[in-house]
Amino acid sequence: MVGIVESIQLLLTSIRAGDDMQTLRKHVDHITPVVWKVLQSTESSMQQPGNESLREPGDWIVANLSKCLQSMGDMSNEGEPIDGPADKEFKARLASLAFDLVREAKVCFFPSLAIFHFHFAWG
């Protein structure tokens, strides 16, 4: 979890500093495989015997995390300039996705929070 948070903090720092698209894409390219591993590990854990109670909220969390990850990847490949500055709207959307990723990843690492989060949001 710390690696994800630190990587996202670096992305947010680059956004605030006005770094170019190439730098932002490098950060996204670093974050994506780490989050992908979290997703795979979470899905694998949910399938283990004895973890049946985590499947319903876990499926919801994995779906949200997957959606955030897909959106961030899509944004990284958008038609913005390859090495020029990113526009204000793009940076705002990327920052919002970064915060969403942290929130969803945090829930994956703390299953008791996942159940609370699920019941609070939907229960």
Walk me through this protein's architecture:
With 123 residues, the protein is mainly α. The protein has a single domain (2-122), classed as Four Helix Bundle (Hemerythrin (Met), subunit A) (Up-down Bundle), CATH 1.20.120. The protein is built from five helices and no strands. It has helices at 2-17, 21-47, 52-76, 88-109, 111-122. Helix 2 runs parallel beside helix 4 and helix 3 packs antiparallel against helix 4 (88-109). The chain is elongated. The protein starts with a helix and ends with a helix.
Primary descriptors:
single chain; 123 residues; mainly alpha; Four Helix Bundle (Hemerythrin (Met), subunit A); 83% helix; 0% strand; disordered C terminus
Arithmetic mean of pLDDT: 76
Biggest sheet overview: none
Structural class: mainly alpha
Radius of gyration, taken over Cα atoms and rounded to an integer in Å? 16 Å
Share of helical residues: over 70%
The total strand number stands at 0
CATH topology: Four Helix Bundle (Hemerythrin (Met), subunit A)
Which residue ranges are poorly predicted, with pLDDT under 50 across at least 5 consecutive positions?
Answer: 112-123
Shape: elongated
Highest-level CATH class: Mainly Alpha
> How many helical stretches?
5
| H-E order | HHHHH
Number of domains: 1
Beginning-to-end CA distance, first to last residue: 27 Å
Strand content: under 5%
CATH architecture: Up-down Bundle
